[in-house]
Amino acid sequence: MELTMDMLAQLMTRVVQDRMPGRQGEGKTIERARKLRATDFEGTRDPTDAYSWMDQLEQVFGMMECTDDQKLRFATFLLKGRAHHWWRSVQLRYGDPTTITWANFLQDFFDHYFPVVYQDAKQSEFLRLTQGNMSVEEYLIKFIELSRFAQLIVGNERAKCRRFEEGLREIAMRTESNLGEFDKREPRRPKRSNREWTVGGPSNRN
Question: Same domain for 9 and 33?
Fold first, then answer.
């Protein structure tokens, strides 16, 4: 069965909801976001810390069902200290801050806080990713985590769904291949005719 974009979106939504506390429909405010464990970000030299903050924030946004404009407002409000000063310099570079989109913010954030070497390593990890021994949900979480580093490869939902499905197929293909190899290695024993056997054992009749 071919995986559709709607099916992948539903899986992503279910995973986010399962991992977040509270209820939906309680308003889209910064107070609500903080209740769902959205935290301030003051900048870091450790890509892992930056990733953890963004990952948590996107889970919160998924739970709140935020629009891209709301994501941009909430995320930039949570930038403090050095991170806030960095964002001010980004706004100056754009000239007109009202033209900045959520996609722009993500790109600038990743370019600044994730060195090229780190991004390349994550992209390579994404390209090697298959379901393996993971459950579908575990595979989906890992897929979402790494796909952000491979936007040139899965830059649209159709490409993302196709790559996700290929990772699912990989385990099935390997299983079929292994079974085929086993069949080749296992010698087939010739069947004996019932007439060659007696109650006491094999017959010695010519």
Answer: yes
Which tens digit of pLDDT belongs to each residue from 125-140? 999 999 999 999 899 8
Please state, in angstroms and rounded to a whole number, the distance separating the CA atoms of residues 90 and 111: 12
Axis-axis angle for helices 102-113, 47-64 (nearest 10): 160
Number of domains in the chain: 2
Count the Cβ atoms, other than its own, within 10 Å of residue 34: 14
Say whether both 131 and 171 belong to one domain.
yes
Q: What is the rounded CA–CA span in Å between residue 80 and residue 87?
A: 9
> What are the two backbone dihedrals, phi and then psi, of residue 41, each rounded to the nearest 5 degrees?
-130, 120
Alpha carbons 153 and 125: distance in angstroms, whole number: 13
Specify whether 96 is located in the same domain as 140: no
Residue 193 resides in a domain: no
CA-based nearest residue to 19, from 167, 138, 121, 115:
138
Banded model confidence at residue 154, pLDDT cuts 50, 70, 90: confident
Give the pLDDT score at 3: 54
- In this structure, the number of other CB atoms found within 10 A of the CB of residue 122 comes to 19
Backbone conformation region of residue 25, classed left if phi is above 0, alpha if psi is from -120 to 50, else beta: left
pTM of the complete model: 0.57
Domain boundary among the residues 60, 93, 114 is at: 114
Q: Is the pLDDT reported for residue 33 higher than 60?
A: yes
Residue 191, pLDDT score: 52
Look up residue 129 and give its two tokens: 């990713």
